[in-house]
Design brief:
Blueprint lengths: L2 H9 L14 H5 L11 E5 L2 H11 L3 E5 L14 H9 L2 E4 L9 H9 L4 E3 L11 E2 L2 E2 L7 H18 L4 H26 L8 E6 L3 H7 L2 E6 L9 H14 L3 E5 L5 H12 L5 E6 L20 H16 L1
Parallel strand pairs: 1-2, 1-3, 3-4, 7-8, 9-10
Antiparallel strand pairs: 5-6
Helix pairs in contact: 1-5, 3-6, 3-7, 6-7, 7-11, 9-10
């Protein structure tokens, strides 16, 4: 099927019950040098803001990054728009997260890859041992473990350096600078989250996006919905969650910027009916960055990966400690 036909299926919202196939040659493709011979900046399309941030910090002035999914957009449910086809076809490079995060857009990305376009899943830098899975499907939310996201930075650096070897040293230096920031962020997060008493280190959110976060930073994590927001929690699962929250007197649960808050509100009400006053501790960024604010430093800017992670940690610590 031609790319246009694939995109039309995505625009119509077709959604197979089977998960999209992984591009088997993705890791090999990332290692094949393909030299840039056009003008600058290099045109790069990224699916999510988190991926876009990796590319911007590595590519600097040599790249122009367009992100398809903006603030508040749920990548699990995202449907390609007519303008996306033009952007993808005109791009010199395309980076996406992978591991089925982009659900309905995956078929378009795979079609581009089969046609020999330069399309790369940043999570192909990770090993099976790095990843969490359930039922044969890997959890795609790897950016919540900063050290894993640091590994993905290495893939972006290598792709840019091989595609544009004239600026290899620049990409290497910029990736090293950003990588140092990521490792400092990881250490800051560990110190902050240690302020929460162990018995209260329970993170309940709208959907199951924070398992890497829980594993990396020793937080007990529960999602009302599954890994994908297309899934629905059963009444039995919600009741069991409510009983746990009441029994352990957990102080707060959290909504997400890209997920409908109705399930979280229902859990709060159920706890109250059982005599436990639990509150919504704040809004976390999960599958999308916040609005970028050009007047705000990166460390506090919700429109950057570092700013998003710092916002989440501050919100969690303030609500649970």
């Amino acid at each position: 099927m031609c790319l246009a036909g694939v995109l039309m299926l995505a625009l119509w919202g077709c959604n197979s019950s089977e998960p999209p196939a992984t591009v088997a040659t993705q890791k090999d493709a990332a290692l094949v040098p393909k030299t840039h011979s056009g003008s600058y900046p290099i045109r790069v399309v990224c699916t999510t803001g988190m991926v876009g941030d990796l590319v911007r910090h590595t590519g600097g002035e040599h790249v122009q990054v367009h992100v398809l999914m903006g603030p508040g957009v749920d990548p699990h449910l995202y449907k390609a728009r007519p303008n996306d086809l033009r952007l993808l076809q005109q791009a010199d490079l395309v980076f996406y997260s992978g591991l089925h995060l982009e659900g309905r857009l995956a078929e378009v990305l795979e079609s581009l890859s089969r046609q020999g376009r330069r399309v790369y899943a940043v999570t192909s830098a990770l090993t099976a041992e790095d990843l969490l899975g359930d039922g044969g499907q890997f959890d795609p939310h790897v950016w919540f473990d900063v050290r894993l996201w640091h590994k993905c930075l290495g893939l972006v650096r290598e792709v840019l350096a091989q595609y544009d070897p004239a600026h290899r040293e620049s990409y290497q230096a910029q990736a090293e600078r950003y990588g140092a920031k990521l490792l400092a962020l990881d250490e800051w997060m560990r110190n902050q989250l240690a302020q929460i008493p162990k018995t209260q280190r329970v993170l309940v959110t709208a959907h199951d996006a924070f398992r890497y976060f829980g594993r990396a930073y020793e937080i007990e994590v529960y999602g009302i919905q599954g890994i994908s927001t297309e899934s629905e929690a059963s009444l039995r699962e919600i009741d069991a969650l409510v009983q746990m929250l009441v029994a352990r007197r957990i102080k707060a649960i959290f909504v997400e910027s890209s997920v409908n808050p109705r399930h979280v509100q229902a859990v709060v009400e159920s706890c109250r009916r059982q005599g436990h006053e639990i509150r919504i501790g704040g809004e976390l960024f999960s599958d999308a960055l916040g609005e970028f604010r050009p007047d705000v430093p990166e460390e506090e800017n919700p429109g950057t990966y570092i700013g998003m992670m710092r916002h989440n940690v501050r919100t969690i610590v303030e609500a649970l400690r």
